[in-house]
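Retro notes, structure queue

What went well: the backlog is down to a handful. What didn't: a couple of records were mislabeled last round, so from now on we paste the full input next to the output in the thread. Example, using Methyltransferase domain-containing protein from Rhizopus delemar:
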Amino acid sequence: MMTINNFHAPLHQPLEQGITVLDSACGPATWTLEMAKTFPNSSFYGIDISSVFPENIKPANIEFLTGNIAKSIPFEDNTFDYIHQRLVIVGLTEIDWQNNLAELYRVLKPGGYIELVEPVVELEHCGPLTRQNVEALHSVLTSRNMCPNIGQELHDRLLSTGFENITVIHKQIPMNHSGKTGELWWQDFKHVSLNLRPVMAKKNPAFEDPHQFEAYLEKSGLEYLAK
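Corresponding output:
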């Protein structure tokens, strides 16, 4: 059953009637699969640089393909009524973001909707262990010419690309301490941290041992983050 948090664009009725949707950087395609099941009359396309999405068992209204969203999105101009993209903060550099937004603008139909969801790597009310991790992550992203504060920058970037009628929704999510949403946010944060540990260890030698780092993350998850 789809939850309202799967999208915010005012497209419930068009999705029920049938539109064309792109899930950019779809990953394992959780969002794509949920949406396709909920809106069987719409056509969904998922693209990711790695084929971690299901290639055989999937609804008939989904197609998946591999591609680099930072270089070229392999569709014709004005293809999609709705584009969804989220959590590519650790995958795109400054130049990649410019190319990506230009490509999304190109394949979106005039009058179509695009929805981007990105965090800001600046956590409030976090404990000392989590703070140590966040500072290392912020440093790593900056050193790689990535954008740790992309969530705060998207409005201006979208405007400069040519998008119009932009709405910004800010949400504060207490990690690991606010029901299912906080639990999922913590799992995402932990997954990113584990993947970037070798790089973050160059900024913080305490992160060098993988087993110690996993134990450290578990202790971080017990810190009360929301006052």
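Agreed that this is the format going forward. Reviewer comment attached to the example: Strands lie at 20-24, 43-48, 62-66, 80-86, 108-117.
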